[in-house]
Amino acid sequence: MGKVLPYKGTLYGISFCALFSPSVLFAEVSREDFDALSNRITKLEEIVNKLVSTKEREARDTVSGKPIDNESVNRIYDRMSEIEENISKLVSAKETEVSDTVPVESLDSESEKDINDRLSHVEGAVDVLKDRFTIFDFFQDEIRRNQEYVCLNDHVLPVSGDNNRCPVCGAMQRSRTHERVFNYARRENISQMINAAFEEDRAKQVLLGASGTGIFQQIVSSDVEEENFGSGSFDLIFLTKPFLYTTFFIDIEAIGGNGPDEAIGSLAGLNADSGSNQDDDDGLDRVAVREVWLGSELFDKRLSLVSGKIDLGNYFDANALANDETSQFITDAFVNGATLEPPDPGPGLVAFFDTKKGLTMGLGLQSNDNSGTRITDELYAIAEIGYTTDKLLGREGTYRIWGRMNGDNGDNKGFGVSIDQGITNRIALFGRYGANENNPEETEIASAWSAGMRMSVPFLKRFTDEVAIAFGQIDKAGGDYESSTELYYKVDINEHLSLSPHVQAIFDPAGADSDDTAIVTGFRTQVNF
C-alpha cells in the first residue's frame, strides 16, 4: 500500500555525526546562523510530532474498521521525505557555512548541548514515525476488502437492489469498496467471527479475540422422551506475528453440554457446537487447547504452511454457506461433509499453494493420536484442489474436490466435493457430496450429500439478516438412509451480537429403518469481540 519508505537507518546517524564531528566543530559559525538553525529544528520538531500523532490516529481508525485513506498515507510519506531533505540540507549548510564573526568557542556549552538534544529529538521522533508505519504495514495483512452499495440518500447495503436501485427508497445505487480488519475465528478458514481488539495490544503486534455461543434446543416430536438441552462454548483467540510472514495462533476452548444427540443418536448430528469438556465426576468445565500452530507464507505468499495442533475441518471441505456452527447451520452434516471424518484436533501439518489465478491445492497430514506418543502411526491424510471463479452468472463461486485416507480405520479411503455459488446479489446455493469405501467394519457412513440455499436481506430494512435452509441424506454402511433438514434465520443485533432461531428434523435417525421423525427447535446466541 502506498509508497515504499525511502529511509535507511544509517542515514541519520551519518548526517548527525557529520554535523557534530570534531572536524566540524573547529569551524566558525555566526550567532545568526546558529539561531536560524535552532528555529529550523523547532519547526522540524513540530512537523514530526504532528505526523506521529496523525499516524497513530490513522492506525486506530484502521483497526476499528473505518476506511483507510490512502491519499493521506501517501501525503505523510511525502512529508517524511521532506523532513529527510531538510535535515540533509541543514547538515550540508552547517558544514560549509563559515563566519569570522563569532568562533565556536564563544558558543556556550549549554547552547551546543541544546542543539544536540533537539536534533536527537528530531531523529528519535522520525524513528517513532517509521515504527508506526512498520506496525501499520503489519496490520495490512489482517485487512480484508469489502464491497457495499450506497444510494443518493445514504442507505448503505451489503447487496444491490433490482436494477441497481435502493430497495429502501428506490434511488440509484453505486458500489464502493473499502477495507476492514480481517476477523479471526476457528471456522471459515479461521475468520468471520471474532473482531480483533487492538488498541493496547496493537503496539505489541498481538491480536486478542473471544467468542461465546449458547444454544438451547428442545425435542418437540420424537419416539424418545421430549427433553430440553442446553450447550455453550467459549473460545479465546490469541494471534501474533513473531517474524515477517509468520503467524502464531492459539485457540483455547471450553464446552459444556452434549445436545440432543445423546437422546436421539443421529448420524447427522443435531449440535455441532456440543461435546462437553466437563468432568463426569464433579461436573466442572475443563478448558482445552483446541488449536495451537505456527504458520508461514513463502514464495510471494503463494505457499502457506501450518504446523502444530490443528483441526483439519478448518482447512478442508470449506464452504462459504455451510461451514460454521456458530453463525450458520448447527447440524453437523451441514458444517462439514459427513464422509470427511477428520480426527479430533491433534498434531499435524497443512500446506496450501495458491496460484493467485483462482486455483488452489492443499495437503494435510494429522495424527489420530493426540497424546503425542504415536504421532506418525495411522495418519489421516487429505488432499484438495479448489477453483474460484465469477464466470457463472457473473457471481463468485468456489468448487472443491478432495480425497482422504484414514489410517485409524484400516486405511479407509473416501472422496468428496464442496460447492458454493452466488446466483443473485441476495441468493447463493451450496452443495456437498462424499463417499467412502463401503465397509461397515471400517466406517459407519457409506455416502452422504447435502444442498441448501441462503438469502441475504430477506426483508427490507433488515440489511444484515439472513435466512438459510438445507437438506441432506446419509447412507449408513450396511444400513438404511437417514435424512435431515434445517432452517434458520439469523439477526445481527450489532457487530458483536447475533441471534438465530432454528428448526431441525431428522427422518429415520441413525438409519435404523424406523418410522421415527425427530423434530427439534432451537435458539442460538452468539457473542464475539
TrEMBL record:
Any single Gene Ontology cellular-component annotation: membrane
Record-linked InterPro entries: Carb-sel_porin_OprB, OprB_sf
A single MF term (Gene Ontology): porin activity
GO BP terms, alphabetized: carbohydrate transport
Family, as annotated: Belongs to the OprB family.
Protein name: Porin
